Amino acid sequence: MTVKNILLVGKTGNGKSTLGNVLVNKNDNFEEVFKGSDGSRSKTIDIQSEQFTVKLGELWEIDYQIIDTPGMGDNRFDEKVILNKLAELSKFADTGFYQVFFVVKGRLNNEDVEIYNSLKDIFGEGISKYTTIVWTDFKGFRDKKKCETDRKELVENNEKIKKMVELCNGIVYVNNPSLDDDDDEINKKMRETCRESRKKLLSHLLQVDAGYRPESLAKLNEKVNAYLEERELLQKELEELRKVAKENRIKEKELKVKQEQIAELEAKVQEEVKNSSYWKNRWEGLGIGSRLFRLFGGS
């Protein structure tokens, strides 16, 4: 059975990793799989993924894979790091993205619109149809009337936000509270809230269209994978050499050669991403370098 990929995108601190933990629901106890943020600094530096299965009756089940990306607003990432992260995303190209969860905390604002526009510029306009806005801390998420009232007010006050909401695949209101309270009774109530939020999200996933497969990522994936596999082999060789070096059996020069080979492969990956026919045009014509920085690591 094909795994359905769910890509999580959102600013640092918006509850993106917590949302991933709620969806995966490890050990049916919402144990931590994805690391959250400390204030404005994300603990998610690399792209992380985790699979889980949803059973629908005795004979039917669906396999999902949550893909958690580094949060926006974290300025640790330069262009080289961001290109490598885009290359990492290419490995999911074969099955594409079943849905993108655009994670927000509180009302949408113009910064969210800019990040959303970056998402479209990078993956194409078609991604909008497969993007769901998820509000992660809406206390009245159980009340359909409150959710609908907020949705109407949201689109009435800002034309840019209205356009974004209309292009996307709707808004899902949930509440994913922290489960680290010392009071067991409070944690029990919070878990019940998480279960209701999860149920609402999974119900939404059952109603959405088939996924989006960016052709650019699929083509890029074939070339990048070869480089990444070779880099992994060289990395293992380098680690072995380091072990031997501690015993003074090899020269520092041999270590340097392996390190240079790895650096060369990393450069090839970055150039392959940057110079592929699709990405080259978008990089130069749309200022895609700044777009990527905004999406994967910029403030």
Walkthrough of the structure:
This protein is of the alpha/beta class and 299 residues long. The protein has 2 domains: 4-207, 3-Layer(aba) Sandwich (Rossmann fold), CATH 3.40.50; 215-285. Helices cover 52% and strands 14% of the residues. The chain has 10 helices and 8 strands. It has helices at 16-24, 79-89, 110-123, 144-156, 159-167, 184-207, 215-246, 252-275, 277-285, 288-296, and strands spanning 4-10, 37-38, 41-42, 48-56, 60-68, 99-104, 131-135, 171-173. The strands form 2 sheets. A 6-stranded mixed β-sheet has the order 4-5-1-6-7-8. The chain has a two-stranded antiparallel ribbon with strand order 2-3. Strand 2 (37-38) and strand 3 (41-42) form a beta hairpin. Helix 2 packs across helix 10, helix 3 (110-123) packs across helix 10 and helix 7 (215-246) packs antiparallel against helix 8 (252-275).
CATH overall fold name of the largest domain:
Rossmann fold
N→C terminal distance: 39 Å
Judging by the overall fold, what is the CATH architecture of the largest domain? 3-Layer(aba) Sandwich
Over the alpha carbons, how many angstroms does the gyration radius reach? 21 Å
Q: Pairing-aware structural class of the strands and helices?
A: alpha/beta
Percentage of residues in helical conformation:
40-55%
User: What is the CATH first-level class name of the largest domain?
Assistant: Alpha Beta
Residue stretches low in confidence (pLDDT < 50, at least 5 long) are none
Q: How many domains? A: 2
Instruction: Say which CATH homologous superfamily of the largest domain is assigned.
Output: P-loop containing nucleotide triphosphate hydrolases
